[in-house]
């Protein structure tokens, strides 16, 4: 029954059979089918799982009506059904009956009453009589042609004899059975009965000697009669025997009196299929084990049943006992040889009294049994033959059961609603009525109540499914159900005439009062339902409207699925109320911070609302977001602040998902996708974990697409949402989906036509003995576990968590995790099956101060046991982080991979474990940034090597992007190397990672041209590297060595290399040209001419080299940028030729190429590096937080093309924290950033950490982040005595900070800008000029101080501007005290608000 790996079909409400189900055997299975409204239901036996739904609209689109009759042709595998005067025939398209196609159709002139189909012949019973049809297969399409007709009273049942010689028919208008001859087309006999005939059925012959013309009839008094010909009249049927309920009930039967009462409707008698039982006797002859005496007797009885051709008839008494009676010698003559006797009797409560009973043969699967079916309700039982023939109680074992019938099960479904906690749903039918369903402990859905419709309207369900409010026809009705009642026990009505059809929302106010809110775009009406001691009352409480300038296009209630995971708070006097009993899934009405309504404007503006606590009629807006979406036609908002919007653009459906937490660092848009199909429905649910991850079901005509949030990764920029899977209903039914809705717990109910499909988890939640869900195999997870696997907190050993810990300096924590992982895997007994239990580290391990990365070397062993005799035991090598433990762990992970991790995650985990060991061994000589670069370097090379090796070993041709292979290290990793003080060590590590020889492709991949600090040794080192790289083997790609050597001025060296290239066709020309003196202007001009000639021939690398030879660096850089599209080469050449980082060409390259490229790509790391190189370190800090458009406006040449800002990188906070107090320029840049902006930036990084699954690191960030304290110039210049003299009280003490806001002392501060002197105590000389902060000249006058004081006394301005002004005022004091410690006032959190 599995639909997908996420959800499987648990149950289906397809309607109960009103007529006896039919069987259709296939080689590997047997199907049962019955008509339900305008569909035919095909079920598998014995599981009763849905195989297929056949809709009459497939054959006649747009038709309506109820199927009146169905029949099957078992030999041709055909199904025929009739609705009014239309007939449709389906043919099996698969050997197991799972696929069906339309075979043929027939349109008659009269309503069809009954059908008989056999061997390509069909008989139809209509209002005027009976007609025989033959199937014509000569054309392209099969056509039914009428052979003959007979006028008979209205037939209700028709049966064709197995020999295809006779047709038996019966009509409710007469108590008789008519027999027609197929060959002569005439009626040959009428068999009169004392009562109306209900069914007629020809007996199936078991052998060649069996009588073919043997007919069973059943009358309305449940008497079964057997007719067969006699020797004297072989062409006429005569009564041979009859069976009634009296013949089944012995005199000593306990329930005989009840069954024989005239008031009791007699139970029918069934003719059991001997063929189904005889097929089960075949394997009984093969016995490989000893047989008991009891079983030997049972087997003899079964063999006798088979050999003597007994006919079996069954009767189910009112107490559920099954009685079987045998009739023998039916094929013998004369009739006096017939004998009846009781074959077996099963005890009471074996079966439910049912009007239909059917036995199906076993399937071909090993260990299968015959199946006994009863209906309605539909139930299947395994029939164990040996106990069955002996009447043992264990003879029948119930396997499956269908749904109980409900009143409106044949009326089409319109929509669903649910209670706020998701514990109950209501199905709404087209006539306005419906049913209420709840889930039991086993996870199955059962109907608990129903109500009758009074017209189509809006419905809300509340009070755990015991109360229902319906708006229809200008009246609001509230139905109240009491436990155990199916229909409402009380209905209250109140007149309500809103301007349009409203949406209804119910919110409990207390244990005895519920608020019912009627919502339209113009007004909002609130009704109160109070359950008082005198009975419930319903009254109008208030009418209000949202405080908006104009009515919105939509006002919708917020989906409260995520509210159920919060504990319900009740007043003390209400806890004892049964209605207020708390439960795990309970709607929390007391939490007023949860949104209640969402309004959508025509311009796509979303606003979220809650009732005002101080007002009974007002609404308060809790937030808003501008989506910019036009033409919104569908929207759904969840209580987790997620809003899904459907808009139509260019006849395509656009689905967008928005987070209401909009800020300058996030637009709120999380997902955007266009669909070709029309979206009909949206529905939210959430996982039952504490973080309540959201899941969105997007409904189309025939499928439901499931979307869930995706965990962010540090390496890839993936979409915030992704398709988790889909439920495709086409596999089961051709009917379009009318609606779908979530139950709490991850169950999805889908309505199509008049039928419901319940999809749930294919696997139960993992028991504690098998490990937590996070470490189970991925293919054994429930829906919620799969979503939690892709969201929520990560395991401590997850590679992404380990990587972030390493980047943030928590190496000791990582070592502890690795040691614990090794010990856990060693102790795991079921690791080979993918199971093991991981005990999470306490959060305090993440938040406690373990010290930052330092060069003090690895942590030393604790030798305190020398002074403690009780601690003298040595630790084993497997419990101490070291090479032995790492080697063992890596080997274990490679031999037995962790199945719940992806292939890339397993590779990352192994690489990080090995990298941690390398860091531990080399951390003595590396600084923080050097270690971060080393981590990225190891991951870059090892991951690429592992993925490439696996691709070659598997022989697959997969793209590098799919494998996770990168061609270049990321810019953020380059910035770590740039700010590192261990340049030479990193260079050595990079060379070692390249195999000891760094070629230009390696230098490009590592972008060494940007992160090397230029020193005198760089030229010699680069010269050495060029010589080592470009020798005889690589002389064929000379442009690169020419570029490098010409930039270094090594023309003679290139000349020597050309001498050895005798095979090159241009050797003579190059030797002749390079032998000239290029210090001479003449030959430099010649080199430039050659460069332009090479440029015209598109030999760009040679052209750049000759530009360098002609001493035109600017042109060489231009070729590298415009033609080669490689500004890395341009940067390297500019730094080499200009002998540093201050040359004009490099500056122009950075301003005109690198900075615009960074803004276009939204790459803040590249822009930070470029501004640092341009000595604009203030912008280098601001670019990390400030919007790119604001920084672009500050440049001389404004940049118009700006890409995605890319704030979703936690390392931005790490770099900002490091740079903002690194120098005077960076301090100046940080003062340009308001405290509120920095506060929001930290919150954004916290959200990013949570999106990445590193919740503990997010907590650590907010606990240890420190804000620079803004000092007031006036407060800094005045002493406490001056404050007292001025009559001002000292400032109030600072409040407890939200984050770790504290004063920080820098060990040093780089002075990279001129510091202005304070004015002298005497009047300055008029001619004295002082240098300004950025090198500009300015006069310092006493008026400047008075102007500063006047500016401090101005009126209050905008919050963010005031914060920036405070920082700027304190900057002057910071510059004056840059070389000494300064005591500043405690930071006030109020500056943020």
UniProtKB/TrEMBL annotation:
This is RAVE complex protein Rav1 C-terminal domain-containing protein. Pfam families: Rav1p_C (PF12234). Signal peptide: none annotated. It comes from the Eukaryota. Residues 1272-1298, 1320-1340 are annotated as: Disordered. One of its GO terms (cellular component) is RAVE complex. Residues 612-1261 form the RAVE complex protein Rav1 C-terminal domain. InterPro entries: DmX-like/RAVE_component, Rav1p_C, WD40/YVTN_repeat-like_dom_sf. It comes from Hydnum rufescens UP504.
